[in-house]
Design goal:
single chain; 160 residues; alpha/beta; five-stranded mixed β-sheet; 44% helix
């Protein structure tokens, strides 16, 4: 069973819903979830917030957060997940922000740096991953981030 199949199955069993807020993965998590038959019963929405303007305007990421920490930060990932939860009314939201590459974003943050947040409205947790791929860097970073996020959602749901 794929991670996305396990996530959909667990959400169905627990009568819960999911929303996503994605930046560097560009909707890949939402795509993988919606590839699973039955996902419409548990998937509320996917927001691709690639620009800071949309992170702020749609998801409610504070301008102060973006200025102080940048789009690729624990703080931004946290506010993205909490914003997706607020907008969607879902039971659980995941967010991903990072530097897919092949080039950095003009800061000292490395290509492959990704922050993933999960929020259930009571708790928001953030994990940092840093990939170091050398071939197909952008594609591999995006796929690795989506895979990590789906695995984490699956584990989170199994621990509930």
């Amino acid at each position: 069973m794929t991670p996305e199949e396990a996530v959909v199955q667990s959400l169905l069993k627990q009568n819960k819903t999911l929303a996503t807020a994605e930046s560097c993965t560009g909707g890949l998590i939402a795509k993988r979830i919606t590839d699973v038959p039955g996902a419409s019963a548990v998937f509320e929405c996917g927001i691709v917030s690639y620009s800071n303007r949309i992170k702020s305007k749609v998801l409610g990421v504070r301008e102060e957060t973006l200025k102080a920490y940048g789009a690729v930060s624990e703080q931004t990932a946290r506010e993205m997940a909490e914003g997706a939860l607020r907008i969607s009314g879902a039971d659980l939201a995941v967010s991903v922000t990072g530097i897919a590459g092949p080039d950095a974003d003009g800061t000292d943050k490395p290509v492959g740096l990704v922050y993933i947040a999960l929020s259930d409205g009571k708790t928001t947790k953030v994990q940092k991953i840093c990939n170091s791929f050398t071939n197909n860097v952008r594609e591999q970073n995006r796929n690795a981030a989506a895979q990590f996020a789906l695995d984490w959602i699956r584990r989170w749901l199994n621990d509930v």
